[in-house]
Amino acid sequence: MIQTVINHFIQLLVGFSGGLAVGAGFVAFLTVLGIIPRLIQLSKTVKYINVYISSVIFGSLAGTFLSFTSVTWNQPILLLLLWGLLHGIFNGMLAAALTEVLNVFPILYKRLGIDRHLIWLFMAVVLGKIAGSLFQWLYFVK
Question: What's 103's DSSP letter?
């Protein structure tokens, strides 16, 4: 009996410590790189800062809950399409903000000398992302 309690306590301690480490890494990623502040600045939506804060907190908690439980979410296809669209928008904006913060594209353009073909590069990235996502969902998920 006491051995089981000790084992559960150790598991609780290790799980909580791991969660703190991952959470600290996530917060460091968002704050040190300035992803969300830069996204707010680029989109000129500083008046919605409380919505951004609430969304990050709620999204983290909901994602953690859904990841560690066996809850299934059987919803109508339209709601799932909206859910997937919101995930895609978030991931796309996060990736765009990350590359913008790290100055990936300006360095790439200068090195390759493709400043005048900027729109074609952006369209290739966007269309490639859409094609890859559709391929994955239509081929692997369906």
Answer: T
